[in-house]
Amino acid sequence: MAQNQPIFQIKPEEHFAQIPVSIERDSTTLINSNRKPNHWPTILLSTICVIIGQSIAKLLENFYYDKINRSEYNEHRQNDGVWTQALLQTVGFPLLLLPFIILTAKKHNQPSSDQFHYKSLAVIYICIGIVMSVQGRLSAMGKLEIPFGIFTLIYTTQLFFTPIFARFVNKIKFNRWVVISLVLAIVTGALTLSSSFGGEPDEAELNYARGSLAALFAGVCFSLLLCNIQNVFDSYIFKRTESTTRKPSFSSVFEVIIFSSLVATLISMVGLLIAGEQHDLKREMNGFPKGKGSYVMAMVGQAVSWQIYWVGTVGLVFSVSSVLSNVISVVTWPIVSVLVVIFFNYMDDELDVFKGVALITALLSAAAYFFRLHKENRNSAY
């Protein structure tokens, strides 16, 4: 019996070592062998961050445009504030420094990675930061050029580009549950066409060609951004732990956001200064109907909310894939749409059948993807 005991101990370890390899090859969501199979707490927390962050950021954005009487702007000031809105999406990254330092300090004694990886990551973070700033600028401009319903329809095309990029860049395979989730998410995005936006242009300000292109390329940039972030995790950050016994830490999420946002913030600040928007900020703050304090709180609130959103978005890429991250981001739109109806009294904006069906399809889309994750994690337990 004593001689057979070592054999009994080795066999389960060999069987367990083969499971992650099989999952990585066949998985739709690309659960890497270095990722924990039971990662539901991280997924749920990241999903909540996406919903809360995006909802609050969008509400404050509507509040900002509503109170500055955006509809009264003339054509020469139509695109005022687009660099400011792009800046607000990334400028709050210093808030993540403290949790990043705390989580990084716990693994301080672990062996460092190859210097080549650091040089490669520096270049990649610069590229991601450029894409982030461009995406933010195009998105802000598109909403001021065309009706918000049309912008939403075009911007939903990101759900076509993300699977394409994920398939060829990240080598992700798809099954029926993920396809169903994507289809339902596309329907959800399309059904939010009846949503209202505080900065929507009037008829004299409409520029369909420029606004449509801005919305389209903003969607492409967002898809490319998510897939590049996943490529950073899979090709660099996760490989740093292959020679160690530790698992990838959530600190890598903060790492990606901080360094990429630093680059994006610098670019947006330069664009803001060149466009002279710093003078518009002073004028708007002095003339804000609710007072300077409310103006500052609205801007700071957007910056903080966007960071919560980015933690959730990148966290979902870290935990699962760029595809799920994009799905959760889009299925949050109906929630924002309903909240806008509740908190703002825009003309012809009400809780119609489109918003109701969008909420249902959003729930089904998320449920389809989470069901796939449940099956995947259950299979990995055996």
TrEMBL record:
Keyword Metal-binding: no
Membrane topology type: Multi-pass membrane protein
Name the record gives this protein: Probable purine permease
Keywords: Membrane, Transmembrane, Transmembrane helix, Transport
UniProt keyword Glycoprotein, yes or no: no
Subcellular location: Membrane
Family recorded in the similarity comment: Belongs to the purine permeases (TC 2.A.7.14) family.
Segments passing through the bilayer: 43-65, 85-104, 116-134, 146-165, 177-199, 211-233, 253-275, 295-320, 327-347, 353-371
Location, primary (coarse class): membrane
